């Protein structure tokens, strides 16, 4: 990999990391808000439980994506 290719790859990888961070923040917020509302029983508990489950699924997916990004970053030898 040439230095220019490596720089371009790292730039793309950094953009993906930022995207993952945004997705994670959105999912965590959704999960936390849904859990808070669930304690007050509005809207229906099953709808909130489904929202929480979906947010948890997104967070699990993001952990896998984050691990792959870390692996790719390590393979080119430079951290942030």
Topology:
Elements: H1 3-40, H2 45-76
Helix pairs in contact: 1-2
Q: How does the major sheet shape up?
A: none
Give the radius of gyration: 17 Å
> In one word, what is the shape?
rod-shaped
Which residues sit in consecutive blocks of at least 5 with pLDDT less than 50?
A: none
Order of helices and strands: HH
- Give the averaged pLDDT, no decimals: 87
Strand residue content: under 5%
Number of helices: 2
Look at the helices and sheets and give the structural class: mainly alpha
Report on the structure:
This protein is mainly alpha-helical. The chain has two helices and no strands. It has helices at residues 3-40, 45-76. It is rod-shaped and about 55 Å long. The mean pLDDT is 87.
Quick structural gist:
The protein has about 80 residues and is mainly α.
Based on the model shown, name its key terms:
single chain, mainly alpha, 80 residues
């Amino acid at each position: 990999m040439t230095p220019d290719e490596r720089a371009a790859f790292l730039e793309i990888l950094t953009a993906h990391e930022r995207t993952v961070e945004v997705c994670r923040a959105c999912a965590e917020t959704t999960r936390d808000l849904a859990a808070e509302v669930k304690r007050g029983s509005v809207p229906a508990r099953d709808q909130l439980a489904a929202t929480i489950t979906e947010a948890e699924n997104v967070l699990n997916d993001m952990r896998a994506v984050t691990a792959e990004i870390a692996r790719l970053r390590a393979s080119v030898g430079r951290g942030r």
